[in-house]
Design brief:
Helices cover 6% and strands 57% of the residues. It is mostly beta strands and 130 residues long. Strand 1 and strand 2 form a beta hairpin. The relative contact order is 0.23.
Length: 130
């Protein structure tokens, strides 16, 4: 049985590995559809739509072109485009096409500049290795 730690995790955006990631999360949700009929005495549900989202805190470096590509996807005067986002831990992977929905670049005295980025899927998973 493998045990994974933070050093085993990585995030890739448009085939560019984000090398300095401090933390990331990925979340999947399943909406339920209420199909209860009047003759029932308990709620009946069926599977509805799936959704996926993720976040990452990336430590900023001036020469980090991978992060620049990610931020350019949101901070642009053109229409944002959906891009492939892959979350990996060891040999396990989840990938989906997503829009960058928010990004916050922050700093404080004595700290490394970070970018907190959020993604929301534009469709189903495109790669699953669990």
């Amino acid at each position: 049985m493998a045990i994974y730690t933070g050093k085993d995790g990585s995030i890739t955006f448009e085939n560019a590995l984000q090398a300095r990631v401090r933390a990331w999360t990925v979340e999947g949700n399943l909406a339920l559809i209420d199909v209860t009929t009047l003759d029932r005495d308990a709620v009946q549900n069926e599977a509805g739509l799936k959704s996926f989202s993720g976040t990452a805190t990336i430590m900023y470096q001036d020469d980090n072109t991978a992060l620049q590509t990610l931020l350019d996807n949101l901070f642009t005067t053109e229409d944002p485009i959906k891009s492939a986002v892959r979350f990996s831990w060891g040999p396990k992977k989840l990938q989906f096409n997503a829009f960058v929905t928010s990004a916050t670049v922050s700093t404080s005295i004595g700290e490394i500049i970070t970018a907190d980025v959020s993604f929301t899927a534009a469709g189903d998973l495109t790669l699953i290795t669990l």
